[in-house]
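Researcher: Hi, I'm a grad student and pretty new to this. My advisor asked me to get structures for two proteins we've been looking at. I'm not sure of the right format, so I'll just paste the first sequence and hope you can take it from there.
Model: That works fine. Here's the first sequence with its structure tokens right after it:
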Amino acid sequence: MSALKQTILALLAFQVLVPAHANVFKHAVSGLRVISAAAPPATQLAVLSASTAEVDFGLVETGHASTQSMTLTNTGGRALTLLSLPTLEGSGFRVTSTCTSTLVAGATCPVNITFEPTTAGPQTTSLVISSDASNASVAVSLTGDALLGVQPYSSAGVTAMRWTNGTQAQTCKGYRTATAPYAAQLEDGLYWVQPTGQNMTAVYCDMTTDGGGWTLVLKGVSKQLAGWNTAAALNPAALQSPAFAGLSGKLSDAFINATKTVAYRLQGSSYFPGIPTRYVPASCVYAHTTSAAGTCATTYPDLAMSTGAATQTAARGGISDYRSSGEYLTFITNADGNWFVGTNQSSKYEGGTGHTPSNGLQAGSSIRMWVR
């Protein structure tokens, strides 16, 4: 028992036993001086603080990185020593900093945090920074949600994009409208696709026009007609670019029909600048070498396909839309290896064969067909 306690207890006992000496007790107690250890003033403490308690990266594709910054500050009155600044390697998060071990009073230093996920799904961890400050450490919550992105994959000499988990979408539309755990893709280019019942194939995807997600399935280049009359695939490598150059090419009728779910989009070359793009409903079952009928013999001026259809006329193979007057895109492929596009079939047209009609306005044409 401390001497101070012993003295107080003795005085209490003295007061109880000897009431007459109560005044002595009072004077004795009043003369006592209690000494305690006082805390140093706040201005003499070091305090470590962070500019935020949480860093949220939102959605980030696997294979991609997102970086945010925060600041450490010594808000106290003396210098502090940073005891640890974890790098968090292997957690999906990475920490880098130019902070030194000593942070003087009022000083700040930046901390950069990078989220670079390798697996899909929500991810979280805590960044704990320790010091010899009065509050010892600060903790910052790190969160992010990872979606599967795409990465290059090479096969048979062709390099195209596919999901980072080693799978591929069925169509370009599958990449463009992807939902979690996949990230929707917005860039035009080559992608690996595999429609139901078909082999994996590298195709060119238009991810920007008419809402994106269009697969290039047919391209006829002026006067390049060799092998055109076929329901099978023809020079599929020619479809790896939408440019009207090189050889003509198409995917097989079966591949085309397994890919389209929304519409066909038909384009003619720019020999006649006024030729518009035309659309055909996905209910058209494509048959490259047989006469078109029903929905395959009707084209529309817009994707809504509600008005403005050209007159239905079964006029050759594949997709045909023919009438003798009016301004519209005529898109015809026929069994003898030819195609035509034009603004008025009775007076001027373009033909893939490059032969000269009686009106003398013909020039070799090129065509493209996309499906979504």
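Researcher: Oh nice, that was easy. Here's the second one.
Model: And its structure:
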Amino acid sequence: MPLFDEINDTLLETKLEESKDVDPFTIPLTQAEATCFARRYPLSSNDPNAYWLREGKKLGLNRNCADRITEEMAQCYLESEPEVQKLFGSDVKAAWDHWN
């Protein structure tokens, strides 16, 4: 198994090295990311991928999705999303439920 591990480590290092020059804001979203992204950023729901490519970097948006978020993440979500604030005010529990 050590040879297999060594090959995997080498492939991972190569992949990481190649990705250093790639701007993640130029990579289209996967279908799963687009679905989650549209839920997170309601303004993007017509075409999440186009919104990501056009506005992602400028607005500092996050393409990554998690199945569940912590209470601290819900607080951040609430504070950073005016649309969510309009819906829930300062209710972190409601923002958490909305995400999850």
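Researcher: Is there anything I should tell my advisor about the second?
Model: You could mention this: The first helix runs from residue 2 to 19.
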